Amino acid sequence: MEDPLVADAGMMRLLAHPLRMRIVGSLRVDGPATSAILARRLETDTGQTSHHLRLLARHGLVEEAPEHGKGTHGRERWWKAVHDSTLWSDLGVGGAEAQAAVQRTARAVWDRTIDAFFAQVAAQKWSEDWQRAAASSDYVLRTTPERLESLNAEIERLIREADIGDSTAADAASDAETVIVVLHSYPHRPPG
Fold it and tell me: Does the domain made of 5-126 have the CATH classification 1.10.10.10?
């Protein structure tokens, strides 16, 4: 898989739908699935999931995964994400509104993910080591655009370095888990 560059506001509006964003995210993080499996994962119904899968496929964000078979009755359709992540750059006139919409949806999706983690903590599904390692924090700094870009690049490098992926190191690490890292870095001016 490779990262796409989402270059138009229409694609951003497509991704601004919460269920579509959650479907793509689940296929990326949890792996290929049928619409029924996705419906269970996302606590929705198969009809909605199927509809949004077809729409996402038309726009090249998901595709069928025939390597997973057709099931015992030959009717299952497996789906997978086409890309590891979604990127976008300057969207031009009208693009800021679409970008803001997709960012609002993304924050809501990540909030659900964080809430799910804390519900699992309450149900004692995570070890104390994982509970200590999980973190949320915020920092305020004064910098330039160039230095912020450099900071973000360094954070991304460290994230890639920490990823043991599908290597034999991951297999040897019995306590390895999938970890979601969300980074926000925006300039701020007081209102008024």
Answer: yes
